[in-house]
Amino acid sequence: MHDENFVALEEQSIDLKKWLNLFLRNWMFFILCIIIALAGAMIFIMYTSPIYELSTNILVNNENNPLDKAQLFSTAFYNDPYQLENEKGVLSAKSVTRRSVQQLNFNVAYYVKHRFNKVELFNNTPFTVEIDTSLLQPVGVFFTVKFLHDTLIMIQADGEGVTLYDFVKNQTRGSIPVFHFTDTVKFGEITGNSFCRFTLLPGFEYLAGQNLQKTYYFQFCSLQQLVSTFRQFKIENERSSSILQLTFRYSNPEKAAVFLNRLTSEYLRRGVERDNKIALATIRFIDDQLTEIVDSLQISGERLQDFRASKKVLDIGFQTEKAYSKLEGLEAEKARSLVKKRYFNYLISNLQSKSDANELIAPTTLEINDPVLNSLIMELAELYGERAELSFNSIKGNPYLNSLELKINDTRRKLLDAARNVLEATDISIEDIDTQIRNTEQTLDHLPRAQQQLLSIERKFKLNDELYTYLLTRRSEMEIFKASNIPVNEILDIAEPEDARLVSPNIKLNLVVALMLGLFFPGALLYLRESLNTKIRSREDIQKVTKHPVIGHVVDSKYTEFPAALKEPNSVLTESYRTLRTNLQFVIDESKSNAILVTSAIQGEGKSFTTLNLASVYAFYGKRTIMIDFDLRKSKISDNLGLLNNKGLSNFLSHNCQLDEIIIKDDRINFDLILSGPVPPNPSELVSSTLSADLLATLKQRYDIIIIDSPPLGIVSDAMLIYPNCNIILLVVRYNFTSSEVLEALMTDLNTREIKKINIILNDISVSRSRYGYGYGYGYGYLAKEKKRLRFWTKK
């Protein structure tokens, strides 16, 4: 178990080394990609308009006041409406943003050309645009402004599919397919055409010489565009805190600060207006009641005065004082109950007429603390507010709006039923008070008739006086509240342009991302290339396909002369063939004559090149060496050596000549050679003939080493016909050329035929790109010369 883990770890380390070597060999590719990525990041930074982030804080209080909704819910079974989520909803409402933008002069946006983009300006332009609102104006079109000199200005604009906008009614009024405008004007002159009209006014503070050399732009902005743009703020709050933080990102920090401050002011003013609206509705209700009470009070007062003057009765006497005091308390209680009854009748009347819930008077303003009634009124007010917001923001026929209407109708029905029930309870209470009043009056029946009449008149007067005093008290309270009404919430930190933070483009982040992409993309491409590449590129790739040993590695060669080992005896290539010859000593018995069959899976893997150089290396060591070109179909040996191929092996196997006639001894090579000869019509029959076997047997008596160049195994079967007369097969596999699927299929076929004595040569390995580290093995005296030769030709 431990051995398996060790092997797994070792294989993993080999894989890591493999990828590391791959990346290191392609370091220039990485450097190029990093440079391109960083250049792209810098271009992005230069072309991206800067975006700043600005914030302001609002403290949401939960203090009670006579009209505070929290007080209405103090005894109800509902959540506090001043939850932070509700305040977030109010702040983010489209209507609040719309009212804020309408109070700001944002209808014209100004820009200046800066490097590769437009930068928005605010309150620091050398000119301002005054719109002629009596005419439609094109929105979204950039007007280019250039100063010809201090007072002469050239204005140009072009656009397609331009929308026309009415700034008086804040409505879109159609569009035109093409808009074109060109004019040269002075400050204060009215300019325009059929689709626009405006006047340029000077901004004297910024009319400096340097500013006049710049190119400026301006465009008209519709209210809808402004609301959509400036509504993109975020509202956040920390846990266990009632502080809301408004964060807004915009290209101009001064303009963003002005908007945020206006938005928070409008939010606070909205709360004050809401409470003032309730107070005004209460005052109007009390005034209506006072109008009736004043008439009754005046009549009862005059009657009391007349009765006392005519009957000369000024006092009721001490004996009835106690009963009369009780009667006064009952009359005062009845007066308050009558006011409540009037309120409930008012509430029922409004509900039946389907008036807006915002016009309803809060019950607590008249000291009516019914939790169910209060909660239903608040719920109805919230539903009306939600309907108003949806009606402003959503399209017609919104299914949620229909559902909201059903909720409103249901809540109105519940509130109407609750009001009727409370009204019935109030009527019962008034009847009970009337009963107590009658009982108390019976104790006063023993008084003289004049005094009884005086008591009756005084009671009516005091009842009206109690009602009048009560209503005046409540009206005074509402007036005092309205005069002293201030926002419940407060702004902790106003937005300051100096506090703006640049968030885009994030230079450090962009450069880091570019650096990461510059490393990732080449790494990913190399990984995909390596993973999808089915070519043989290492000893491990061969070992995955077959168990036959890899006996040698031949480095790539830039030499065009053949054999290269003979022409460049001190090269790295020649040294790799010497190493191959040394490795063969452990496979064959060099004390005897050996026939070595060199073949490959497909054409182009370098078997002929290997055959020539291996023969040359054996000849270096004094071995009697002969090379036979057994490729009777498509031989290239004669072309590579520059020899005539008019007589060779095919002539001998066809009994057209003797053996000595086809053996070539040339001063340009250090070994004997038998060429393939003319291409015969029956190459397979010639190769499989007994004469072919006799040839090899005869040559083994004359030579120590016989190197045979045969056709590829994966194309024809000629090599299999020669195999029984050979001591070993050298299968040439070319680096990054031979497909692993082809090699695997060939090895499967050879194993099926039980072909053994196969040794593999990995050919054409790049010294600089392979991960074998040949620079160390062949570098002593050889690789240095190769590099020196390369530098020479590079300089040349």
Structure description:
The chain is of the alpha+beta class and 796 residues long. Among the domains are: 1-48 and 507-532, no CATH class; 319-446, no CATH class; 550-767, 3-Layer(aba) Sandwich (Rossmann fold). It has 26 helices and 23 strands. Strands 16-23-22-17-21-18-20-19 form an eight-stranded mixed sheet, with helices on both faces. Strands 2, 3, 5, 6, 7, 8 and 11 form a seven-stranded antiparallel sheet that branches. Strands 1, 12, 13, 14 and 15 form a five-stranded antiparallel sheet that branches. Helix 24 (740-752) links the parallel strand 22 and strand 23 (758-765). The longest helix has 59 residues, at 253-311.
Cα(first) to Cα(last) distance is: 60 Å
Low-confidence stretches: 1-13, 64-82, 771-796
- Number of separate strands: 23
Query: Over the alpha carbons, how many angstroms does the gyration radius reach?
Result: 53 Å
Structural class: alpha+beta
Strand order of the largest sheet: 16-23-22-17-21-18-20-19
CATH arch. level architecture of the domain at 550-767? 3-Layer(aba) Sandwich
* Shape designation: elongated
